[in-house]
Design goal:
Largest sheet: 6 strands, antiparallel
Strand content: 25-35%
Shape: globular
Distance between the termini: 77 Å
Number of helices: 3
Order of helices and strands: HHEEEEEEEEEEH
Radius of gyration: 20 Å
Strand order of the largest sheet: 3-2-1-6-7-8
């Protein structure tokens, strides 16, 4: 094949990839950092249909049927159901965004769970497909950090949760910074004494009316 023809084919391929990526960005109606409202741990606990401790054991991304957006399917091994009814050993949640080949789609304020991570996940609804199935996006996405013999709760942004604050006051209007209200946090590097997984679950169960 002549060199010029090879160049033309390569150029057309790059053009179509660029157009496809632009189409994904334009067609995906996703929230931005200016539209995700701050929520508290109490709100997360009461409004989520399912809350569970789990480990990410599978993750695949693919185009939708119309080839206009990308969805990532994350499979969790369910370790413990903190709230709700769920009797299967695994659960798969669908997130908008991901990478297929050379084309990627990122959603602001929505972080895809990583393969192998363990955490506690607040699922808003099991019936409705959403941009991010976790309530409040990153605010409903918590990780578990193994620290010696302790299992410590950290935020999705890897800040250690050092305390659970009272949520008695009416919620103040505001936008999310990725961390739920009602939590005191510290940098993960210092590894201060943090809220344990047990303490965190007990607070969630109390907020959701499962404890006396």
């Amino acid at each position: 094949m002549p060199a010029r023809h090879l160049l033309d084919v390569t150029s057309r391929r790059a053009f179509f990839i660029a157009v496809a990526a632009l189409t994904l960005c334009v067609c995906a109606a996703v929230p931005s950092s200016s539209s995700v409202l701050a929520v508290s741990l109490e709100q997360l606990s009461t409004a989520s249909q399912l809350i569970f401790e789990g480990e990410v054991v599978g993750k695949t991304s693919d185009f939708n049927a119309n080839q206009t957006s990308i969805h990532t399917y994350v499979t969790f091994r369910v370790v413990d159901v903190v709230k709700g009814t769920y009797n299967q050993p695994d659960i798969t949640l669908r997130f908008l965004g991901g990478t297929v080949g050379e084309i990627g789609l990122d959603v602001s304020d929505s972080t895809l769970p990583e393969l192998g991570e363990t955490g506690i996940y607040f699922v808003e609804s099991l019936e409705r497909f959403q941009v991010n199935p976790l309530y409040g996006m990153d605010q409903g996405h918590f990780l578990i950090l193994e620290s010696g013999s302790q299992r410590i709760m950290i935020t999705r942004s890897r800040r250690v949760i050092t305390g659970l604050l009272s949520d008695d006051q009416p919620p103040a209007a505001g936008l999310s910074n990725g961390i739920a209200r009602g939590l005191s946090v510290n940098e993960a590097g210092a590894l201060p004494s943090g809220v344990t997984v047990f303490q965190f679950k007990q607070a969630v169960r109390q907020y959701s009316g499962q404890l006396p």
